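Incident log, entry 3
Record: Class II aldolase/adducin N-terminal domain-containing protein (257 residues)
Problem: checksum mismatch between cached and fresh output.
Input:
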Amino acid sequence: MTVLETTETRPIACTDSEWAARLKLAATYRVFFMLGWHELIFNHITLRVPGTDDQLLINPFGLAYDEVTASNLVKIDLTGKVLSDSQYPVNPAGLTIHSAVHGNVPDAHCVMHIHTTASVAVACMEEGLEDNNIYSSQLHGMVAYHTFEGTTVHNEEKSRMVASLSNKRLMILRNHGLLAHGATLGHAFVLIWTLNRACEIQLATHSMRGKTLLVDPQISERSTRDALQYDPRFGGGDQVLDALIRRLDRTDTSYRQ
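Fresh output:
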């Protein structure tokens, strides 16, 4: 049984498609926790409510990632107005970043933002991401950069963030962390996983002696074209995310509540 094939009694009233989205999003929060991609109660994964353009599901502010469930996810509009029955507020910083992307990129159905040690370290480097490994070589021309403006709670930064993102799926927020958006949860996940993995390798490489061996840009361009896991027509990462959710299901299914 996958997260989209469920027979549980729903604790909240919603459509079949919204409940399926809630299940997979809650499971993804638990996967992030399993991978160590959580930041206390901060950071976010947002998902458009199926069939809408201006409604999102977001984690309840105040809960850790391993406390997120399908029913306690908060439904909001792009202004942050809560549309579901929830005892929890929404983090203003998360709303600013995620609503900017969802509101201006038509196929940004999922937006992910992380602060892993490796990703923040690379975001603090003037040269940013270095193309020196198989993971970075699959992201040729796919990564944008946005200059740090402080805590992201000001609406006037939204337009500058969207301009920085341009037509890219990935963005390194300078001095801050990573952002990815995708056509599905799995699509966004495999993108941000690859970028974070490239950051991890860069962090390890720079701790070693010797000169870094960079990848030829032409090789990276070809490698990126050949990386079909980023193409929604070929699953767009859903197979990867589903495998991790199956692993989660073998130990903890409380996210289904």
